[in-house]
Amino acid sequence: MILVRTGPRFLFLRNSDQEKLLSLLEKEYSSERKSLDQAIEESGEGDTILVVLEKEKDKEQVEGSTPVLLVRIGSSPLLVSIINKQHLQASIENVELGPGLLVMKAPRPGEKILEKVQKEYEAIPVPLKEAIVKGHSDWSVICFTDRPLSRTLSKSDLLESTLLIKKSVPELYQQLRRQSVKYLTEELEEGEWRELKINIYDSLERYNIHYERVTTVIEDLEIGFILGETWSVDHPFVLMSVSVFQVQLFTYLGPKEVKRIMMSLEYDDEGNRVADFDLYYQKKKVEWGGMEKGRQKNRMELATAYKEKYMNSLTSQAKSKLAQLDQALRDCENKEQCEYERKQ
Q1: How does DSSP classify residue 53?
Q2: Do 238 and 131 lie in a common domain?
Q3: Is residue 236 helix, strand or coil?
Q4: N or C: less crowded end of the chain, CB within 10 Å?
């Protein structure tokens, strides 16, 4: 689970002929022009956003619609590359490295995390664009989001507040990595993480496949840590016990939210019921009835709605892996065949 990660660096280049320099860089690094807002949304760790300015133009005039280049190279190797290319070097009159960007996990509303970080690091709350143009090379900009950090983030994924901190990205990143769990905990309503138990029951005993499905979703949505897995016994009816495969999850989400995610995995991508995923918190079973307000839907209707919500939030890699695992479930047509598959 990722709680804090780096973002792109900003490199400001000046030339009396802005269009000429943009064209040269665009061709040299096979990068299409984008607006600053678009480049930030599409950027990831290790990328550089090149902002080309006219010689006398102040950085304060940079706007979200300003044309820039997003280059999938780190700022240091990119700058070395530019210096070593004589035709580029001759076209640049001034170079300025902007602040580094960090993105931090913060469940909405995120106010407690923001206030804590702002106080401890004497941060300056400013809009993102303003932070980018005002920050120096040894400063950092922190954005906050409740979305998974393993993917690119749109502007709407970011919380409104942004902090500008007078610390370099490497130094601040190391500190926040050690403190991020503490900050996240303080944001939680009840001030605590929860240990949940997920009991998986499948009459065909395809537990190895279900375990892969569960871990794929948990890791991709970044909802917590898997503490372990074991065999357990469940009692669905009086005087009846069945063996179940149990996964222990340590999460900041509420039990109902995790129950929704687990219900979405009870059906495969063709709508077939493939397993029961019972969830326990503090030795009590989290029931699916009454999960939503308004008209009560049946279990399949709810699971289908949850599947559409959560599965659409997965990365393409996770979706592809789940499709393969769902097909593997269908290929296990009987218990004996699945036992054989596991032994291989």
Answers
A1: E
A2: no
A3: strand
A4: C
